[in-house]
User: What shape does this take?
Amino acid sequence: MYLALYRKWRPSTFDEVYGQPHITETLKKEVASGKISHAYLFTGSRGTGKTSCAKILAKAVNCPNAVNGNPCNECEICRGIDNGSLTDVVEMDAASNNGVDEIRTLREEIVFAPTVAKYRVYIIDEVHMLSASAFNAFLKTLEEPPEHAIFILATTDVHKVLPTILSRCQRFDFRRVSAQDIVKRLKFVAENENVTLTDDAANLIANVADGGMRDALSVLDRCFAISDNIDSAVVSSAAGVTGNDNLFKFSGFIAQGDFKSALLLVSELYKGYCDVSVLANRLLDHFRNIMVAKSVSNCQDLIICSEEEIEQYRSRAKEISMNKLLECIEILSRFNYSVKEASNKRILLETAIIKMCGVKDSVSAKEPAAPVSAPRTVTKTFTQPVPVLSSPEVKAETPSPQVKEETPAPAPQPQANPAESQEPYPDGSFTLWPEIKEKLKTYDMALFAVLSQTDAIIKNGKIIILTNNPGLKEYILKNNYASALKNAITDVTGREMKAAISVTGGNNKPAGESDKPKDDSPLSGLLSKINDFNN
Assistant: This one.
């Protein structure tokens, strides 16, 4: 029966473990000196050697012929642990055995002395999956186990392990395996399997593995099924990723703003073998490498690739500004966050590509589209905010933005306000009021509904809104509708104009010009005085 590469080439001694010298050296010294702890906790990302080191440690503490802390792998105990026939070493998966009953069974068994080996070793993988009741049942046994018992706990999510468990273990944090160590190991395995592996292919596998040696060997295993001469094209086909040549094409199209060619390349890769999510991650790594090449002079230590590709990164870094690189990285990061819930990943990637190309007429996702308005004169400098309504509250809430002149003049002259130079509207009926109400639909439909039945006149250059609703003014100010009203007036008239509200007697005429209000209550009189004061 064929044995997968990650199982066939699993390290059998501490010296064969790649990328974890800070852990293997410590464990070797503990075994050699006999100062062995009763509980260990191995934590780290997947495929970094946690379970492998646990099995090596189980062999080393029981091997009668251990040398410098390493097991001999030749004695009966070592072979029994390797093939799983030795009952003194128990490997338990907490993901499927996470109940309190399993822990109780373990507590009942642990009191018995080992049959052949020196220690009974319990390797509990994915220990964070244990239930709260199982953890509590395990605490006392973990704190004071029999002298012949050793616990080795492994987890990829140490934050879910109870602090009371952590405090009872010797903790070892496994790092991601560096790309150099992965490449070295892949070369070693390929050579012993009589398979040719190019440097580009090894680097591509290392990038795809993302620090996991097991993932790297799994990808290499798939490549073996395709060809005995493995290059980057074989890896791309086996792993469903694109090679660096296509990534450089993407960055070139984005630097030139050629979104059409970029979309065609996405379509070509999508129809072939490339997964959209993997492609986005590869693009993210690619733009990160360009950013590093642009920022660091000696970037060879931070980018794992050939010397030829290093020069390509440096060349591309000269074509793209740092702000553009940061923008592309941000767009791709947002894509990776949102693609998990997307039903069509390709559309999201194409949208991200267009944004990265910087299409001129595209609208930023953070800013709403500006409504189409009549031609207006833009004021470059506002010295004082222009209020919409004649109320101190509105002045504090709706100041106009201050825009500074970009090119300083040697002798700046005070800018005249175009609103002052324009001829004021004559007093009387305000014919543009229907257009202003229609424009309110763009800003706030609720305000449009409130003002839909109102009329307006011009008095002393100010818009007087006529309404028979005494509470309208307070409603507008309380709900911060003044800003929307101001924007609608400015868009239609092309100038900044003040506005006020006048309560009429029901015929859309200001009070005093028509019949008096029927309500002669004190409250009505007070509202009338307030409106007269505002006018």
Remarks:
- The CA atoms of residues 262 and 399 lie 44 Å apart.
- Residues 392-400+421-534 form a domain with the GMP Synthetase; Chain A, domain 3 fold (CATH 3.30.300).
